[in-house]
What we know:
Layout: E1 3-6, E2 9-10, E3 22-25, E4 29-32, E5 34-37, E6 40-41, E7 48-51, E8 55-58, E9 61-63, E10 66-71, E11 78-79, E12 83-86, E13 94-99, E14 102-104, E15 107-112, E16 123-124, E17 128-131, E18 138-143, E19 146-148, E20 151-152, E21 163-164, E22 168-171, E23 177-181, E24 184-186, E25 189-190, E26 200-202
Parallel strand pairs: 1-5, 2-6, 3-7, 4-8, 5-9, 6-10, 7-12, 8-13, 9-14, 10-15, 11-16, 12-17, 13-18, 14-19, 15-20, 16-21, 17-22, 18-23, 19-24, 20-25, 22-26
Amino acid sequence: SKFYATGTSLNDRTDDGAGGALYFYNLNLTLDNVTVTDSQAWRKGGGIYHKFGDATISNSTITGNRASNFDATNGVDAYGGGVFLNTGNQNLDLVQTLSNNTIQNNAVGAVTGNAGGAVDLRARGAGAYVYSNSNGNKVVNLTGNNISSNTITALNNARSAYIKGAGVYTFSDSSHTLNVSGNTFNNNNATNQSSLNLSLIHI
């Protein structure tokens, strides 16, 4: 069977304004053959949000979703337009996998307003944001995905150091494992920050 989530919105303007279509917390997650489209969250995971536990998303379509702080003058961070994955601070061996997905036309960032050069406004991972904390052994797998036309938008004068990974942004400890193979990155863009129009950035 196929699962669809489309046209949903979670505009709770708090730190937990997350998971526009699907929100998962403290569980091992497997999503296969899922379609998540045209959904929006206030801060994290416009399409899908997952924190604490293993996560595998495969053979799925994640398109047209947005994680947005709406007004840059608020100085609120936004992460993961299509997908937000975070292992949390658990001292566990965990695996995060994105495999054979179409992650396309997602966006992250403010819709209106001017952040101002002194505002530490972070906007990362328009397609996907994948975070692994430093405790335990962590593995991130990015294989066979089509990641295209994702955009970080309308962040006028925000510090460029905080605007990264229009396609995918990953963060993990240097001792962790990042496997990247067989992906297509195309036309991912960070508007107004031409030096950071990176499809994949790993910190």
